Amino acid sequence: MHEATIAKSILEIVSKQIARTPGALRALQVHVVAGQFRNVDRESLEFAFDSLKMFDQRTSGCELHLEMPSATALCKESQHAYHPCYQQAYCCPLCGSGIGKLISGEELDVVNVSLETVLHEEQKDHARVVR
Amino acid sequence: MHESSDEHMLERILNNNEDLAAHNREHFDAAGLLCINLMSAPGAGKTSLLERSLLDLSKHWQCSVIEGDMVGELDADRLRKLGVDVSQISTGKSCHLDAQMVARVVHSKALDKLDYLFIENVGNLVCPADFPLGEHKRVVLLSVTEGDDKPLKYPVIFHNCDVVLFTKCDLLPYVNFSVARATQYVQDLNPRAQCFAVSIVTGQGIDDWLNWLSSAYLQSQKNMPVSI
Known about the structure:
The structure holds 2 protein chains of 2 kinds. Chain A is of the alpha+beta class.
């Protein structure tokens, strides 16, 4: 159940982003990419995230947008790119050779955080001046 | 006036663990030791392999073990009987060791005189794969009673390791496990992994494993920063 650790780490990144964004009030959504080769279980991660986010008002309304792309490997014989899968024993469907290199599928990243912000007085002034 | 803003970024999740693993590695390299992370399902024979390996290794080398278990010190006590220094990490409800748990032990240990540091991870073929600890080499054990299809079911841990040991090979006559098939599955996922078929009971393959350890140690010494 390492999804709880992953959920905690996502929320830390979100909180850090709120802290360093001027005028940020709370997080609305976080976009996470977890590749096929990162052993992430969607239901477990969503459950852990939705439980842990409630401990902070700034994250309690944050939605988890979880993208789980399948892996891409290069065949070790022909360098042909393919999606390795259990049914083919992760081998190249064209020639049957094993994985030479994984070129994607090991991502475990936060790629976007949507925040609700309030503009500072000076920013509003600046906005008025611009208008 | 409330607005929403999108903050595009690329921040690695679990980067704290990766940073701490790199920190642990610096300690290991400074001490000039070889650190091995042993991973497997529960009951594949990690502690038995350590008992057998330490019997030989501790005659000539300074060895130490970090034992990860959810509860208790049963494995640590087995290894202490050999006179080996063992530090226990009880993970409580956590199903894997992480770099921070190991860092706490590393900071309390005299590493300088050590040649080998073995970390016996919590028995689990899923979670430990995502938590590097700073080790130089990752070793996965798969006992023949578990079935030769396990690399297909748990690809991540087999994809990211240096050695796979098929353990309990004395039981091969009684189970439907093909060493050739299991080796093929591992090598399809990870062409650089070396596979050894071993048995603590008969001694099969133990010399190959110990030879691998010894060459990994020598290799690590070549890669170490030269101490002044």
